[in-house]
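User: Can you help me understand a structure? I only have the sequence.
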Amino acid sequence: MSREGRQRALESTLAGLNKRYGEGIVMKLGEASRLNVEVIPTGSLSLDIALGVGGVPRGRIIEVYGPESSGKTTICLHVIAEAQRAGGICGFVDVEHALDPAYASRIGVDVNNLYVSQPDTGEQALEIAEALVRSNAMDVVVVDSVAALVPRAEIEGEMGDSHVGLQARLMSQALRKLTGVIKSSNTCMIFTNQLRQKIGIMFGNPETTTGGMALKFYASVRLDVRRIESIKQGDGVVGNRTRVTVKKNKVAPPFRQAEFDIMYNEGISTYGDLLDLGVTYDILSKRGAYYRYNEEMIGQGREASKEYLRQHPELAAEIDSLIRTKAGLPPRQGSGGAGMNGSE
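Assistant: Let's start by predicting it. Here is the structure, written out as tokens:
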């Protein structure tokens, strides 16, 4: 068969697969192809670009996992803040009983209009999440976290009792019920998860997530969140440099990475993102410690440059728009430009 004939046969096969299983079931790993899906921004422009579609997709299950204090809940709260800013209704199932309303408010979450539940058992948590999704009123529902979904039998039992596979079976059953209704209600369902170590692993990655294998299969997007270094100002630590790897992505090519700053008591640094991406896309020039835009001095040093952008929102919005154009993302919705979200 000639090369042209093989290409026509492949295109015919792909068209049949897309018709049978949905658009984007097979895509080239390196191409910029992506599905036309509704998304909710993550609050980090670099992460929106890494996801390929401008945010987390609606009507899908998202898993955000990583070590302790890596920024998982912060990312979820930013998604909630973005959804609320667009007029959406959000729910937070706080299984860990650790939600900090003051921190959420500083990030930009409207805590007065956030629906929060702190259930006692894993079954209760997942039933509440299912009911919220079935209401067809929710734009985002966050379950924080899978590791804290303790089955009722384990709570009612005694310390030391063996309950093998209870949590995995609970998650498997819940996800089978949730997947269809999440799609039909167009809700973005986000699960956070913790890491555990496999015992006796000599080769390969010993890390795994809790709750069995079901969530890995049902999730359309899996985000691996890691803290890679501390951000210091003087002698004190004021934040973390965070790297997110898109380990799985059903709506765009996977394995892309994003790096951004998470500042203590502020959340994701929007202006730090603009500096990094501005240099990456040749919108800003960086000579030594100096950042310039069209030969206009922005600042000396990263923190001073971020402060300059904070004080000049029109310039920040202009840089944000140029980055989105070069990255192939749609313009930012709403007024106020980049980062005008109360988190900075």
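Now, to help you interpret it: The CA atoms of residues 32 and 292 lie 30 Å apart. Residues 335-344 have pLDDT under 50 and may be disordered. Let me know which part you'd like to focus on.
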